[in-house]
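Kindly inspect this today.
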Amino acid sequence: MEGNGQHSRPGNCRKPLHDFYWHDRYKDGSRNGETGCIGGFTDKLAKAILLHDLFCIATCLTICVSNSYGKKDSAEASKYLVAIMRLTAVIALAGGVILYFCARPVMILCSNQKDTMDMSVAYFRIIMGGMVFQSLTLMMNAALRGIGKTKITLLSNSVIGVTDIIFNYFLIGGEAGFPALGVAGAAYATVIGTA
């Protein structure tokens, strides 16, 4: 790391983009005649069940890769990355499948809003079906942060966010010949963005 703070600026810029990425602006399905919002926090809370452990693993990966990179041992850093990517794929696939099939009970635990339950379950299932992509992207960005390539993680998160916004526009309201999927379109846009 350089002492002039060059690496901290992209990290500071990444936080608002990350927050924007996590918040689907088009969750309100009222454009398509559906009732209200699916409870934007509800699905994030449920998704956090799986992501909490993955964030912890990502932090460990950043530390291990940074330590190896500092010792100028790129082979060791690569071993950490490969091992963690394999572990992440297994956790994300297993957790995603379990949470996919347990979507309704999880949504009931997080918030039992009867009027939006079906939309919440549909959204959550789609997100869990694509969780492996988001998890692997998270780990790759963690490794890049570990070697000080924070500008690449900023760019990665920016592309994810822009892709999500573009596909939200197309898939929620059915623009440009795409099907109008409503809330499910927001979920598909998120999965496409992270894939």
Residues 40-70 form the longest helix (31 residues). The helical segments are 8-22, 40-70, 74-101, 103-110, 117-129, 131-146, 150-173, 183-194. The radius of gyration is 18 Å.
